[in-house]
Every structure is written in structure tokens, then in C-alpha cells.
Amino acid sequence: MKRLLLIAALLAAPPAMAAATAEQEAAAERLLSGWATSPLLASIERFASRSAALEPAFESLCAKPADAKRLAGARAAWQSAYLAWMPVSSFNWGPTALRRTGRQLAFRPARAELITAAITADAGRKADEWDKVGVPAKGFAAIEALLYKQPKSLAEPAACAYLVRLGKEAGDEAKGLAADWRTFADELKHAGEPRAKAYPKASAAVGDVVNLLIAATTELGEKTFGKIAKQKTDSVLGAASGNGRALVAAQWQGLAEVVIGKDGGLAAYLDTQYEKPVLARQLRDAIAGGKGAIAALPANLAAARPAQLDKARAAVARLQDLLENPAAQALDLTVSFNEADGD
User: Which residues form the signal peptide (predicted)?
Assistant: First the structure.
């Protein structure tokens, strides 16, 4: 909740940066315009496309719930959509924040007793009952629970109808998010122009992206990796499916596409516009280090050893530190919030 409110505040608040030079502002406009198209909008379009496959895959399974191939197809559709969500999840900005997409679809852990209650009430087929279902019984974690922990329950029509309804909600939300983001991405492309709606200065938007990167690295390091040893297995990301490493790798790749990107990303911007070649190299090294540390984790994060988790957490913290300190200082940016502050 706190993160959502603070992102909304970022959009409304005056820039917390000193005035950039004309050359820096022009470079910020180019950087932001590139980000708006790829990776930001591109990742959301991919998420929408993959999420659209959930409902038909679940309907196919429900036609023959005991069919192993159909179950595998439903699981593959879920994995594909969830993997596509992870890069999007790091940038809770604009429509993603305003629509509260993360809370709707990515709340975890799922609450088994609430899923059972929703199925008992036939919420998948009764609109009035569906409206009563809370987020702990919805989204990707709830789908994972049904497909991996309770697949035999899908022989019950009410349970399968609930799975289909979960898929429909995810597909509908992703479709709406993509539509809203097309408009927002166009606004970002015009940041700095006289009639700019979202950002009169592109450099302010770049500063907001840095704040989002800081929040994402804090959440990944402190919450995803930092709490695994203390969590029950059901609370660990992707534990039921054994898909946790792939999910965090997808999230890290989303961060990498902004930090170093195909055109150099934030690192190149700091190098060329703020004369920070050493920082640019450190950012590239941090991205590579994080990728390696994540790849060294077991596929199921619940099976990770403390030393592996510590290494991954330290690698993420390295990027966070570079963003919070030298990068923010170079941009004369006030770090607006930190995910570790709490929900």
C-alpha cells in the first residue's frame, strides 16, 4: 500500500532534482522515450498477450480435468503469464500503480482457506459471490495453488469454474493495463514538451525511474531473498511450482533492460551526461553479478541454502547501493522512498 501511495505522490509532486542542463534534459528525453517503448510498454504488451491465454487454457483443462496434457498446458500458460508479469512488477508506475495491478494479481501468499471458501460459495459462477472474494484468494499465487497443490480438486465443477474466473480476471486486467499504458507511454515520449501532461521535465521522470529501481531492488533483496529462511514454504515465491528462480531471473532481466539496456540505459546516460564512466561500469558489473548469483540458486527457492541466499541478497544490495548513493547523488536526486520501510 505504501509503495502505491508513494508512486502516486511521485507523479503529483514537484521534481526533487536540481535543474538539468539543456543538453542533459535533451538526453533525458531520448532516454525516457526509449524506455517508454522498450522495455516498459513492450513488457506490458507481452504480459497482456500471455495473460490472454490463461482463460482458454483453463477452459480446456476443465473440459477434461484428469487429462495430464491439458494440466501441463494450463501450468505452462500460468508460468508464461507470471514470468511476463515479473519485469512489469518492478515498475509500479503510472497506470500500474493507479490500477493497483500488483495487488490484484501478485498478492502472496495465497490463503488456502479463502480459496476453499470461494469455491464452496461457487464464486467462479456467481457474480455476487465473486465480488466478495479478497485478493489473498486471487491472482497468480491462487492459480498456482490450484494447479500444483490441488489439481485433483479441479474435477469439481465449482473449483474448475473458479480457476477459469481467475484466468479471466488476470487476462482482463492485463488487457486494461496495456491499453492505459499505451496512453501513458505516449505521454512519456512527449515529456519536456510545452504541453506535456505527466512530466514537464524528462529529467524528473528519469529520477522517478531511479526511485522505482531502488524500491524494486530493496523488495527483491530484503523481502524476496531476505525472508526466505524465515518463511513457511508456502510463502516462498513459486514454491509450489518450483518456479521461483525463473521468476526472480525474469524480474532481474527487467531491471537490467532499464539500467544497462540495448542502448546503454541509465548507465550510459550517467556516463555521457554526468561524466560517470566508473559508475556506469559498476552498474554493468552489478547487473552481471546479480544475474550470476540468481542463476546459482536452485530452481525452487525454498530449497536454497543460506549461503546462496546471502550471495544473491548481497548482489542485489550492490545494485541498490549504487542507485541510492552515487547515481542519486550524480542526478541530485532525493530518494523518495525505500521499500524496506514497510507496506
Answer: 1-18
- In degrees and rounded to multiples of 5, residue 17 shows phi and psi of -130, 150
Domain residues of the chain, as ranges?
2-341
CB-based contacts of 87, cutoff 8 Å, min separation 6: 39, 43, 250, 251, 253, 254, 255, 257
Angle at 81 between CA 78 and CA 82, to 5 degrees: 80
Sequence-ordered alpha helix ranges (H) in the chain? 2-12, 22-35, 42-51, 54-63, 68-89, 95-98, 101-106, 112-120, 127-130, 139-144, 157-189, 202-218, 244-259, 265-274, 277-295, 306-322, 328-330
* Matching CATH number, 2-341, of 1.20.1420.20, 1.10.730.10, 3.40.50.1110, 3.40.50.300: 1.20.1420.20
Crossing angle of helices 265-274 and 202-218, in 10° steps, is 130
Global pTM reads 0.91
CA–CA separation, 328 vs 17, rounded Å?
A: 9
Residues 120, 230: Cα–Cα separation, whole Å? 32
